[in-house]
Amino acid sequence: MESKGVYGPYPVDFISDIRDLFIRSTQKYSGKIALQYKQNGRWNPITYLQLQNEVEQAACGLASLDLKPQSGKLAIVGDNRPEWAIGYLAAACTGIVCVPIDKDLKEKEVYNILRFSGARALIGDDKHMPMILSLRGKLPDLEHVFNMDAVNSKEGIRSFSELKRLGKDRMAAGRNDFLQSSVSAGDRLSILFTSGTMGTSKGVILTHENVACNIMDAAKWVDLRTEDRFLSVLPMHHSYECTDGFLLPLYLGATISYAENLRRIAENLVETRSTVMLGVPLLWHAIYRKIESAMEAEGMWKVNAAKKAATIAEKCFQWSLRRFLFAKVHAKFGGCLRILISGGAAIDPAVAKGFRELGIEFLQGYGLTESAPILAVNRNKAFRDAAAGLPLPSVELKIAEDGEILARGPNIMEGYYENPEATRDVLRDGWLCTGDLGYIDADGFLYIQGRKKSVLVSPAGKNIYPEEVEAEILRSPCISECLVYAPDADESGKGFVIEAIVVPDMDYFSDRGIVGDEPSDLKNIEQELQKEVKERCRNLADYKKVARIKVRLEEMEKTTTKKVKRYLYTD
Known about the structure:
Blueprint: H1 18-28, E1 33-39, E2 42-47, H2 48-64, E3 73-77, H3 82-92, E4 97-101, H4 107-117, E5 121-124, H5 129-136, E6 144-147, E7 158-159, H6 160-172, H7 177-180, E8 188-193, E9 203-207, H8 208-221, E10 229-232, H9 239-252, E11 255-258, H10 265-272, E12 276-279, H11 281-298, H12 300-317, H13 322-325, H14 327-332, E13 339-342, H15 349-357, E14 361-367, E15 374-377, E16 390-391, E17 396-399, E18 404-408, E19 415-416, H16 420-426, E20 427-428, E21 431-440, E22 446-451, E23 456-457, E24 463-464, H17 466-473, E25 479-485, E26 499-504, H18 506-510, H19 519-536, E27 548-551, H20 567-570
Parallel strand pairs: 1-11, 3-4, 3-5, 5-6, 6-7, 10-11, 10-12, 12-13, 13-14, 26-27
Antiparallel strand pairs: 1-2, 8-9, 9-19, 14-15, 15-16, 17-18, 18-21, 20-21, 21-22, 23-24, 25-26
Helix pairs in contact: 1-2, 1-9, 2-3, 2-6, 8-9
């Protein structure tokens, strides 16, 4: 049931930095499974004690390379896996600055990050090694490269096992850099290079305090538990997954299982009996569409009757029957899933409500890499499905005169790496200028209206938020992606017309015998999309309605959090 967020925070343990987090958890939960990964058809567990030993060896290995605290930088690139976590924690616990790199970036982008950051060491997986080899000659600072998958060292690239062996040799000689190191709250933890929808990439400097405070705040606001089992799906280089899908579970003493891939999420949920999963709207929409299709096959009258019965039981008797009434749905996800957390972009409120009606708590949050990352999140007993949530306990939010959301708190970044001009643009008088437009309602819930830079202004002076129009269009079962913009307007507003680039859901059309191979198929698809966009815009004011569409059959290029890179299609 929705409420006004008046209940208090959940109790948490104080941590000053990520080293403090890790040492506390490995001591407190030593025998518990911290991480597990699937290999050769079976799940391999790593306990907190084993993880501590692995991190200790890797930390001493990094120290043997003469990577100094704060000045030394370690880059990491690859899929979610224990070696990624071990490398990150080894750096964090000894004061080395971590530079996580998006595993999907092209060679030029990876080169720019490595050159600009001055990373001296890199840990990567096998599929990135050819790229790193081709770049290495142009990167004089990059002295050490370790391959997560290699058994032996070759071509100047050493195995991850070799890094740990260097550490063990150093420890045997009486030098334990892991135990002898110290970290301060204000020390730099990481430099995260953003891949924004507006086409700018900057290195966000996050300190230990930034992330530690955000972790404690998240644990105060959301009912997460030591016995929870997280399925890690989103890429770990992104601040959302790194803070809340990696470090937060370790802080709680929970277990993290690394999903094999997106296609096997349901199977992995069943195998690991996971209770919590973080995701982005694109993922939740896809999962919920499949659930809806299955329910329609069962008969929606049965589903609606069960929902009504569950609502009556809750209101009249405080009975919770949803997991029982929708046991078949829960069984498909392992039977233990209790919380889904959404971030990265706005979710369709109907999807959030739909999951909750099935007995799965669905909480939407909001944040930026620059805020480590969470600024607001809906709570278990205080939520609005259309809202981004309530500000975290340590976060202060306000709305500027032009509608921009401003944020202040201990989680706000130090600044952009070696970019004082960009830092001054977004950090003003202690406030982070988010670049997002929104408002706060009477109960304190934050609502996001769209990006400040993408807002459209009609000739009559009306503000049109593309994200609002896109949300309506994406309710269509036959549309998988869309982007709304005004391509031809000049500064005076002449030629202003709202257009949408629309990508059809080809599974929807193929189920109806339209495969898209023939010109007649494409014509039918375009006609159907024209009608669908017009129908979906009926709920919007006239000045917000899409006047024409462009059909695109290929998926649009996206950021890590699956937001369309608008600048590629609107500039």
